[in-house]
Design goal:
197 residues; alpha+beta; Alpha-Beta Plaits; two-stranded antiparallel sheet; 9 helices; globular
Length: 197
């Protein structure tokens, strides 16, 4: 992650997220210090979601694809999910009155919501349903460095495993993200350079 915030901007624009709500955000670790890193954070769609465990009205559900979604018609805006989530994914827009909250909003992995798929109501309440269209979540599609990946869990975890194994082998580990051959100097240039020294 190079902290370009393309994922954040794309999500806000595509899903028409309410003011004050960020379904995705970029955080910087060790800001201004050696070893500084940026990380794009959103709902992790946990297999055993703590937000769902504490919800008093059971507004959370998991799709067959493993995406954790919620029903805004059931949500009462209590905020328990916000405190239970270790990633700070649940967000609450201001409802107008002092210290009051609206219905919870969070990353939907571009999977829409419980309304009819592709309907205007689904888009208004939950944003785009790109998964139903056979597309990747927009944040992953817009990530220029491929720090964000989406798709089959086995494929994605193998890519991340390779990145961890190769960490430190090349500058910024771009060789794992992109074709390593395109990042290297041609062999003839390498050979010539070594024979001159």
């Amino acid at each position: 992650c190079i902290e370009c915030n393309a994922c954040v901007t794309a999500c806000k624009n595509e899903n028409e997220v309410p003011w004050g709500v960020n379904r995705r955000r970029v955080v910087t670790i060790k800001d201004g210090e050696p070893g500084e890193r940026s990380l794009s954070v959103a709902c992790m769609h946990c297999a055993d979601a703590p937000c769902a465990a504490v919800c008093p009205v059971d507004c959370f559900y998991t799709t067959e694809d493993g995406v954790v979604l919620h029903d805004k018609d059931i949500c009462i805006g209590c905020g328990y999910c916000f405190y239970a989530c270790p990633f700070g994914a649940p967000q609450f827009p201001k409802a107008g009155a002092f210290a009051s909250r609206g219905k919870m909003d969070k990353c939907t992995f571009c999977a829409g919501g419980p309304k009819e798929t592709g309907s205007a109501e689904e888009h208004r309440m939950y944003g785009s349903n790109r998964l139903a269209e056979g597309k990747l979540p927009l944040c992953a599609e817009m990530c220029s460095t491929k720090a964000l990946l989406a798709g089959d869990a086995d494929v994605v975890s193998e890519i991340y495993r390779k990145r961890v194994v190769n960490r430190g082998a090349s500058v910024l580990d771009w060789g794992v993200n992109y074709d390593k051959a395109s990042l290297r100097a041609p062999q003839s240039v390498k050979g010539k350079a070594s024979s001159d020294s």
